[in-house]
Fold this sequence. Notes:
The protein is of the alpha/beta class. The protein is built from eleven helices and nine strands. The strands form two sheets. It has a seven-stranded parallel beta sheet with strand order 1-4-5-6-7-8-9. Strand 5, helix 7 and strand 6 (213-217) form a beta-alpha-beta unit. Helix 5 (126-133) packs across helix 7 (192-203), helix 6 runs parallel beside helix 7 (192-203) and helix 10 packs across helix 11 (320-338). It starts with 18 loop residues before the first helix and ends with a helix.
Amino acid sequence: MADTFNYRIDHHGSLVRPAELVAARAAGDPEARAAAERTAVEEAVVFQRRLRSTVVTDGDFPREDFRGAVLDAVTGFRRTDEVGADGLVGWVAESLPKASGPLLADWADRLTALTVIAPKVSLPSPAYLAATTYRPGLGVSSARELGEALAEIVQAEIELLVSKGVRLIQLNNPLLLGQLATDPADPGALSFEDALAVEALAARLDERPEGVRIGVAPGFAAPGAVDRARVERLYGAIPADRWILPLDQGTGAELDLVRALPEDRDVCLGVVDATVPELEDIDTVMARIDAVGAFKDLEDAAVSPSRGFADVANRPLLTTEGQRRKLVLVETVARYVWGNEF
């Protein structure tokens, strides 16, 4: 796709929260928190510009975790006291969700006003939310029904965001890569087939203005071995323009995920591991990208870290400095691959 270069240096969206924002959230003063969020987002935009990123996000700073873009803005869900091993607080669906207004469009407007760099918005996918929040007997007849209701909300938000100038939107579903294994992982409350149908509803966009990309991040790590038929069903069912795929471990399964991608889809390669502070050897990274280039046109590719740096606000994966060094490496890799075309 000819304009992929516009979003060559990417990242998943969540950034390590600055200490001032963490303190403001802990203090419990809504006005002070809102002011701290605005300041933190403004500083994050400057940070991303200095790193020469080709996209900017709000870092997920206004949210407790990456799901908050939806869960904080719709009715029908109840927060529980359970905390999973991933640090995510539990939520359950007690009725079909309804949105009282835009989910993230206001923050997107602020990003657009702060910089000419393309604003990127990340949303939790409806299938992921349905798979993890549905409980039988709590007022929703099935996980599929819940997913379809969420898909309508997310799809409407995508259309609104595009109308406001957002050109890159990412749907996050950490469960999907586990479903592509030769021995698939537990899909949660939503089957693999139902998840594909739900994600397809959310990602549909009848008219795509020039430069618009709808991306899907199906997980953070490739399985040990992938089932080619299931991978092809995934790519064929969901009308995404871009797939954000891991390439930070150098496994054959990572290459298989890219190899199965249709020629007309972009790929964003997660080339550095966002979970460890040690920097990757750049020659190793380049060798992995070269292996992709043997069968995929790198003009239809981008690079990013393997995942967000703080998908849960109070559980950053790296320090602020560690995050900066990883993002600098991503930018360096992009210039090794594509020169100064962006």
